[in-house]
Design brief:
The structure holds three protein chains of three kinds.
Chain A (H helix, E strand, L loop, with lengths): L2 H16 L10 H17 L5 H5 L3 H10 L3 H7 L4 H8 L2 H4 L3 E5 L2 E4 H26 L2 H10 L4 H31 L11 H25 L16 H19 L2 H10 L4
Antiparallel strand pairs in A: 1-2
Helix pairs in contact in A: 1-10, 2-8, 2-12, 4-8, 6-8, 9-10
Chain B lengths: L1 E11 L2 E11 L4 E5 L6 H8 L6 E6 L2 E2 L5 H7 E4 L3 H4 L5 H11 L4 H15 L14 H14 L4 E5 L7 H13 L3 E5 L3 H7 L2 E6 L2 E7 H4 L3 H6 L6 H4 L33
Parallel strand pairs in B: 3-8, 3-9, 6-7, 7-8
Antiparallel strand pairs in B: 1-2, 1-4, 4-5, 9-10
Chain C lengths: L9 H24 L5 H15 L4 E2 L6 E2 L4 H8 L1 H19 L7 H26 L8 H35 L6 H33 L19 H36 L5 H11 L5 H14 L10 H6 L1 H31 L1
Antiparallel strand pairs in C: 1-2
The chains are: A mainly alpha, B alpha/beta, C mainly alpha.
């Protein structure tokens, strides 16, 4: 399958996940947006050696996956190209930071090992949190939420329109790539002599299309401001969700929950 | 009522896309606009909606097409574009239909009602929350018609309403057009479609009116059509089987569901 | 070149959000002032095309590999810097949400690294001066135009990508996340992006030359039909551009030359007693020009951290909490697993019921 097809498939997949029904899906988009942001913010703020503090943050994605019914496997399958990149950056740490931070038995664990692990965990947690937001919130709701927090209408409109036309463009390019491949068997990509005309042709057509689009918008009374269909009012649950999660995140950051529970179990050896 | 008086249009200096057109379309009339590629069909429609500068006088219900009247005229006149993707720029059909209604100042409740009404009239209620980029070509075209109908226009302009549709979807669209009571102006190369849906035909050639008269007359005039780089409709030239001769009497082929109006393809099959 | 959330500290991320947000605000204001709402649909479809165009593989002649398009330079050449910047932001946002390229928190930084340089620096310091200059005045008009488009595209892509890559290094180092020394990181990033920039520049040039030849009016500052070769401010702006480019390339190269091998070696094998943290501190001071920015970022970071780095200043206390930490972490993991299991159990029940 072609890369454009892959991308188009990825889009459709996210749309379908977002169109499902679950308590998480029905939350107000703004509540999810804020929570996700605070979650990521708190997650990355953990110190690079604070592994035991960071580990608690796994509970949020775990809970969200469970309640929303989004399969964990889908998430990691989608992230398979991105995750290695995030993980790779941490790989240097053990080489540079070799001071042993703690010893378990005769095994010394260096600071670099710990910071590598926290870095990787942070990467995974943040990606899953963003994924959960996108997978449980349709794009138009995200846009409505952005408009609510006063992101300029022009940017939100642009986001909505671009999102709408990406699938159209992917389809056109996919057809063109097929046409190219059929006449150029064995070539992996576009040869240099067609670099310009391949995308250029479509570019010219696209800009004309933009003009027609504008006409079509004018015909239906467009005057620079969009109307969003999503006017869902925030319910009590939404406020509750936001307040509770944000408080919990801050608490997790302030107190090392893992250490506390651990010391309760082991008899208070803090 | 639409009236053109000495209307000319030019894209580049000296190249007239429309050349001194004079005609009148009365209320409730269904007019076919035919002509070879580049004859000026789309230009005529754009000029009528004030999207292109023109000389001469175009009036819609006595209103001059210019400046401050444009909003009123565009509200009264709906245009179904040839490319449904350019017509529908919002993520879902519902939002797309709401877009125009809200822009023209309808309240949300009223608009909601109107959307359901139109979707019911066209028999495509199940498309309401469908994503625009996920529909098939036929569904898109029906949705585009719904988007325009929602505005409750007095006149409907259609640019190639059946291009790139399979025969079954084509028949559905034809039946829909026939069921409309508004004034209609339909531009198409599909002369069978024109024969099925229009009582009068305007034949354009090089920006001028080559003929204007009853559809049955003009579409049977082989010499006239061939002089203007067109051919007789298939059903009149004998290229079609007798089943399609029924098309002449309207659209009776639907009632008995001939040619297996596929239920899985057609959004409005009984 | 997308940055991940995990590579940024909250302070740096917030700073970058503010910077990119300001640039976006200015762009919106400018477009509103020029009443360019008509541009909106064109911006959207062009952005969508560039997004899709990034998926295409371009074979690089003579090698087995392929290049891609990034788009900042191309969008600003087609739409102008302000509209181009907004389009790039939108592309980056969609990439972040749908393809997990870069994170939500890193979006501000990514917009800066990839959109700001490509659109503003690339446009005002490279594209416009070159397009307006008298370069190639002796050539035939069309050929001169083509030459200028190629020169501006290639130069623009290389310079803006270098700036972007440098920012990535700077932001990561300021965040204090990776242990890779600044110099070594630079030595790694800059040359790679020199190559990427060159390829991207050539692809951009190819596309823009095609546009130039078929519809020059679509390119910013490239419509020579009306008044022939425009020459306003040509000499000065060309000199400025070349100066910027020279300083920049020179700086990057010298950084590479001095920092790369020694830095790595030094950090890996030398100076063991001093420990790593001091090396980092040294590097941060060496930023010189950027020190005020570094300070700001650091102070923001301090304020935003709920918990200053307690317990980790000396490793003893860290080890002290270790036992409870490990036990607690195990419990957390168990709870997470339980949540998943319970969820599955209930789901099965509802399916059967």
């Amino acid at each position: 399958m072609d890369k454009t097809d892959h991308a188009a498939y990825g889009f459709r997949e996210m749309d379908e996940l977002a169109a499902r029904q679950s308590p998480v899906h029905s939350l107000h988009p703004l509540a999810k947006l804020i929570t996700t942001f605070v979650y990521i913010f708190v997650t990355v703020s953990f110190h690079r050696y604070d592994l035991s503090g960071l580990i608690v943050m796994v509970l949020y994605p775990a809970l969200m996956f469970t309640v929303s019914g989004i399969p964990v496997s889908t998430c990691f399958y989608k992230l398979r190209f991105v995750l290695p990149l995030v993980l790779a950056v941490g790989l240097f740490n053990p080489f540079f930071d070799r001071e042993p931070l703690l010893t378990i038995g005769s095994l010394g664990i260096s600071g670099g090992m710990i910071s590598m692990t926290t870095l990787m965990l942070k990467g995974i947690f943040c990606l899953t949190a963003s994924f959960l937001l996108a997978a449980t919130t349709p794009m138009d709701s995200v846009c409505a939420a952005l408009r609510k927090i006063r992101v300029p209408g022009m940017i939100v409109t642009l986001l909505l329109l671009t999102y709408r036309y990406i699938s159209v463009m992917l389809e056109e390019l996919s057809v063109m790539t097929t046409a190219y491949k059929l006449r150029a068997p064995g070539q992996k990509g576009i040869r240099y002599n067609a670099w310009g005309s391949f995308l250029g042709q479509l570019l010219l057509r696209t800009m004309d299309r933009g003009q027609e689009l504008f006409e079509s918008m004018q015909l239906r009374g467009f005057q620079g401001e969009f109307w969003y269909a999503d006017v869902k009012k925030a319910r009590m649950t939404d406020y509750l969700f936001t307040v509770v999660t944000v408080t919990l995140f801050v608490l997790c950051r302030r107190f090392s929950i893992a250490v506390l529970t651990g010391s309760l179990v082991t008899g208070g050896a803090v | 009522m639409i009236r053109f008086e000495q209307v000319s249009c030019e894209y580049e200096k000296g190249k007239k896309a429309l050349d001194a057109l004079n005609f009148e379309i009365t209320e409730g009339e269904s007019v076919g606009l035919i002509g070879a590629n580049g004859a000026g069909k789309s230009t005529l429609m754009k000029a009528l909606l004030g999207l292109l500068p023109h000389t001469g006088k175009i009036t819609v219900d006595g209103l001059m097409v210019s400046g401050t009247n444009l909003k009123e005229i565009r509200k009264k006149t709906g245009l179904v574009l040839q490319n449904s993707d350019n017509q529908m720029f919002m993520p879902t059909v519902y939002e797309d239909m709401m877009f125009g209604l809200l822009n023209y100042g309808m309240s949300r409740e009223e608009a909601d009602k109107r959307v359901d009404e139109v979707l019911g009239q066209l028999g495509i209620k199940e498309l309401k929350n469908q994503y625009n980029h996920k529909m098939s070509g036929g569904e898109k075209r029906m949705a585009a018609i719904a988007v325009v109908l929602a505005m409750n226009p007095e006149t409907i302009l259609m640019d190639e309403p059946t291009s790139a549709l399979d025969p079954c979807n084509r028949r559905i669209v034809i039946r829909t057009i026939c069921s409309l009571t508004q004034t209609r102006l339909i531009a198409s190369h599909d002369l069978d479609l024109i024969l099925d849906t229009c009582s009068r035909v305007i034949l354009l050639s090089g920006g001028k009116i080559a003929a204007d008269g009853p559809a049955q007359e003009i579409l049977r005039d082989r010499e006239l059509l061939e002089a203007n780089r067109m051919e007789l409709p298939l059903c009149l030239s004998g290229g079609y089987g007798t089943a399609h001769m029924n098309g002449l009497r309207g659209h009776s082929q639907f009632e008995d569901g001939t040619a297996g109006a596929g239920s899985e393809v057609s959004p409005i099959s009984p | 070149m997308h940055m991940a959330d995990a590579l940024l500290s909250p302070g740096v991320a917030a700073t970058m959000y503010v910077l990119s947000g300001t640039a976006a605000g200015i762009s919106v204001a400018r477009l509103k002032k020029d009443e360019d709402t008509q541009k909106l649909p064109v911006m959207a479809v062009t952005a969508a095309l560039v997004f899709a165009g990034q998926m295409i593989n371009y074979t690089i002649p003579g090698t087995g590999s392929s290049g891609h398009l990034c788009g900042g330079m191309m969008l600003s050449a087609l739409l102008g810097p302000f509209a181009g910047f907004l389009s790039m932001i939108v592309i980056l946002t969609i990439q972040c949400l749908f393809f997990a390229d870069g994170g939500l928190l890193a979006l501000g930084a990514n917009c800066w690294n990839m959109a700001f340089y490509g659109c503003f620096v690339g446009y005002f310091l490279i594209w416009r001066p070159i397009m307006q200059s008298r370069i190639g005045a002796k050539m035939e008009k069309k050929a001169a135009g083509r030459f200028k488009v190629i020169l501006a595209s290639v130069l623009g892509c290389i310079v803006t990508l270098q700036l972007g890559a440098f920012s990535v290094v700077l932001e990561t180092s300021l965040s204090g996340i990776t242990e890779l020394p600044f110099g070594a990181f630079c030595g790694l990033m800059q040359p790679i992006h020199l190559a990427i920039g060159l390829v991207e520049g050539l692809i951009t040039a190819a596309v823009l030359v095609f546009v130039f030849e078929s519809r020059p009016e679509l390119l910013q500052e490239a419509d020579f039909r009306a008044d022939g070769v425009t020459g306003k401010g040509s000499l000065r702006s060309t000199v400025v551009t070349l100066a910027v480019v020279t300083v920049f390339v020179g700086g990057a190269l010298s950084l590479f030359a001095s920092g790369s091998p020694d830095g790595l070696e030094w950090a890996l094998f030398g100076n063991k007693e001093a420990g790593y943290s001091e090396n980092m501190a040294l590097d941060e001071e060496n930023f010189g020009v950027e020190s005020s920015a570094a300070d700001t970022a650091a102070s923001i970071q301090e304020k935003t951290a709920f918990l200053p780095d307690y317990a980790f200043s000396n490793s003893d206390s860290a080890a002290g909490t270790t036992v409870s930490g490990i036990v607690g972490s195990a419990l957390v993991a168990a709870v997470a697993a339980a949540i998943c299991l319970i969820g599955r159990f209930f789901r099965k029940k509802t399916v059967h019921g």
